[in-house]
Design brief:
Blueprint: H1 2-13, H2 17-35, H3 47-69, H4 78-96, H5 99-102, H6 106-126, H7 133-160, H8 169-190
Helix pairs in contact: 2-3, 2-4, 3-4, 4-6, 6-7, 6-8, 7-8
Amino acid sequence: MAADGGAHGSRVRAGWWAPAAVLALTVVQLGVGTFASSLQQFEGKAFGARLVAYPVMMLVVPVAWWLAHRGRDVRVPWGAFALVMAPFLIDVTGNTLDLYDSVGWWDDANHFVNWALLCAGLGLLLLQGIRVRWARVLLVTGLGAVLAIGWELGEWYTFIRHGTELDTAYQDTLGDEALGTLGALVAGLALRRPRGADGG
């Protein structure tokens, strides 16, 4: 019994540091952006709202997974959690280093890469039991498209509608949604083959 308990504990703890580090680095930078909002790279970026919203969104998936698997002897998917959280860290770091304003392609690259990471993490959690390849790709891509739309709505409500980017918001929104969906498609293609099977 003691040996079984030790094995279970190692499965629970192994890899926890990756999502914990991502969360901690994100929160620290959010705090800096909130309390040093007069700096140019943080001005008008709603860092006060992000300080609350980002940690909550980063923890939604791990908490939901824990509630669904509570009491079960299963390996905790820390890697998937880290992938889901990583886009928030990348976004905040881009603002901290002023990359959104100083690097022309940074915003577009973010929407593509971050959605690939986010959807890869979600796919690792949601695709278990789905064996058909096209269904796996479609699920991840469709989920990414829905999340891209939701994200753009959140950005518009939080700071675009009263900000200086309103004139170009329509074109930017369409581009961001397309890039996010493309990133989700890449994640879906990467996860199209079920583990230990040829798929269908």
